[in-house]
Design brief:
about 600 residues, Glycosyltransferase, eight-stranded antiparallel β-sheet, 14 helices, 30 strands, globular, hydrolase, 6-hairpin_glycosidase_sf, 6hp_glycosidase-like_sf, Trehalase-like_N
């Protein structure tokens, strides 16, 4: 392999940014930058070793899979409509042009979903005689291990201690190994994946995989019950959420990355490649609103195992995607971090937290399974018995201090959002019991819910702020109280809720954007807006009748997306720049929810 240098005529790697496209197949994923460099890919699953780590290791030392054009002048990038297949066109200063297609195969075969640990890249000349360079730099062990490379007739093997990848390609192997530029005269194909031989020819396999994958995603998108307005944004958000499902177990990750800071040089660098019960509930709820219930069925498999494994009653706020309980947090000092802003963390200490809203999120995530007759596996009495155990623990911990949904590491309070979800658990259990014809259990849970609701409304209300506060007896404001209307604790027209929205806007909003809370946390005061809070504001405004303002803010959030329609966790109010892990499922959920609430109805045009 060539050393990490850039030959004349080829630009050095661009500075990392979040102008990235996501490809994946519900088993693996990768992030592709605007110049068609794969800069992030963890294998053999979402929380694995980043074999391509350039997103958090800037410059020539970062590992990447680049297909570059000499004398690059312009780049265009788009998704094949209604699919997870990404295309990039690179044009040089003389007008020569290439097109690169990226995807991970996903389609039905042999009565199952075929989703191999494989990335497919196809590059074809579009105009002229472009000269390209292929730079495939694999690293293992979080950048520490350079693999041994062996060569076959049409493949290269990247041999590591724990993983071996095979590149099957019809491009000249010598040029790939040396990173030697060459003139692209015909289409070439690259299949990077498990160390296995292909059943068919390289080109035929790549073309078949692309055709079948496009057909799968188009059929999947066709069945979505989308709103009349903003259909492209909703479909892209839905596909992104689907790609966040680890189908093998049913877990849904919060984001594909680790350690993208919430703001510049903040140290707020966390690993989000795990399944938070809170985030997963919102993902399931958003996809359900589009009539995509298969993801919920997959997630309920995972959730059922979490509940059954919780013999002590305590349930963690997050788990590994394989149901791992222990996610010890460590730092990878050999990696510089996003734009050099380390640390790069692996694992998440929040798995050790007590976050009492988790029980409500479990019940809310499972509730539809008791009411929806479309499901292949509807929930019944056995599932309700297990869910009641979750509710019983919600009652036991209700009103006790915890870390809260924002996972504060050094401060415990009786958070309003946690109490709210305790109420939601009891309220939904009462409705499920009624559905199952269990009036005594319905009364039991309804009584708990009634008592909790009265206490929440009393103890979270701050007369001084004329708003519901972030904790019982507190006076600081927190955007999470906007969920009080969304989950049904209060009517959005209640004067106390209307007053709360107004107070939050004065204190937490920077133009259209909304921060999480006003109080300083372990790292000081938050600098960036938290995207899901902005979407909660949009929902609240629509509910209280301020539809025009809600639409304006929603349009601002759509404009804040990257060129491919994806959002990270945070937005800087002054620069509009994205920060935080990417793509953030919470944020993509917000796009769907806001569009569904604000769109004109279909019967207004048909």
């Amino acid at each position: 392999m060539a050393d990490a240098t850039t030959p004349p005529g080829f630009a050095p790697p661009a500075a990392p940014s979040l102008s990235l496209g996501l490809i994946g197949n519900c088993a693996i994923s990768a992030l592709v930058d605007a110049q068609a460099h794969i800069v992030w890919c963890c294998l053999p699953r979402f929380d694995g070793d980043p074999v391509f780590n350039a997103l958090v290791q800037p410059g020539e030392t970062g590992s990447r899979f680049a297909i570059e054009i000499e004398h690059l002048a312009a780049a265009q990038q788009w998704y094949e409509p209604n699919t997870a297949v990404l295309r990039t066109r690179l044009t040089d200063t003389d007008g020569n042009c290439v097109e690169i297609t990226d995807f991970a195969p996903r389609f039905q075969a042999r009565s199952r979903f075929f989703r191999p640990m494989t990335l497919v890249r196809r590059v074809r000349p579009v105009h002229g005689a472009p000269r390209i360079r292929v730079a495939l730099r694999v690293r293992y062990g979080w950048g520490r291990e350079v693999p041994q490379i062996t060569r076959g007739s049409n493949h290269l093997r990247y041999v590591g201690d724990a993983l071996t990848l095979r590149l099957n390609t019809d491009a000249p192997l010598s040029h790939v190994l040396s990173e030697q530029p060459f003139v692209l005269t015909r289409e070439h194909h690259f299949l990077l994946g498990a160390d296995e031989s292909l059943a068919q020819g390289i080109a035929d396999t790549a073309r078949q995989f692309e055709q079948e994958t496009i057909a799968y995603w188009r059929h999947w998108s066709q069945r979505l019950a989308v709103p009349l307005e903003w259909q492209d944004a909703v479909i892209r958000a839905a596909i992104t959420l689907k790609l966040s499902l680890y189908e093998d177990t049913g877990a849904i990750v919060a984001a594909m990355t680790t350690s993208i800071p919430e703001s510049a040089h903040s140290g707020r660098n966390w690993d989000y490649r795990y399944c938070w019960l809170r985030d997963a509930f919102f993902v399931v709820r958003a996809l359900n609103s589009l009539s995509e219930v298969a993801t919920m069925e997959d997630y309920l498999r995972w959730l059922g195992n979490v509940v059954l494994d919780a013999s002590s009653g305590h349930i963690q706020p997050l788990y590994g995607i394989g149901l791992e309980r222990s996610l010890p947090e460590s730092v990878q000092p050999q990696l510089a971090g996003y734009r050099g802003m380390g640390p790069v963390r692996v694992g998440n200490q929040a798995a050790e937290h007590f976050q009492h809203d988790v029980y409500g999120n479990i019940v809310l995530g499972a509730a539809q399974a008791f009411h929806d007759q479309r499901l292949l596996h509807r929930a019944g009495l056995p599932e309700f018995a297990r869910l009641e155990q979750v509710g019983q623990h919600a009652v036991r911990v209700y009103g006790q201090p915890d870390a809260g949904m924002w996972e504060l590491r050094t401060r415990a309070r009786v958070h309003t959002s946690s109490a709210l979800m305790g109420w939601a658990a009891c309220d939904r259990l009462a409705k499920i019991a009624a559905r199952l014809g269990l009036p005594e259990r319905a009364d039991h849970w309804r009584t708990h819910a009634h008592t909790m609701r009265a206490e929440i409304l009393e103890k979270s209300w701050s007369t001084r702020r004329q708003a519901f506060a972030e904790s019982f007896g507190g006076h600081e404001l927190d955007a999470s109280v906007l969920l009080m209307a969304e989950v049904g604790l209060v009517d959005a027209r209640d004067p106390r809720f209307v007053s709360t929205v107004a107070a939050l806007e004065v204190t937490l909003c920077d133009g259209p954007y909304m921060r999480r809370y006003e109080a300083a946390d372990d790292f000081g005061r938050p600098e960036t807006a938290f995207n899901i809070c902005t979407f909660w504001r949009i929902d609240a405004l629509a509910r209280i009748g301020r539809h025009g303002e809600a639409r304006e803010i929603f349009e601002a959030m759509l404009a804040a997306r990257n060129p491919l329609g994806l959002l990270s966790e945070d937005t800087h109010a002054q620069t509009g720049e994205m920060w935080g892990n990417f793509p953030q499922t919470y944020s993509m959920v917000g796009i769907i929810n806001s569009a569904m609430r604000l769109s004109a109805p279909w019967d207004s045009v048909i």
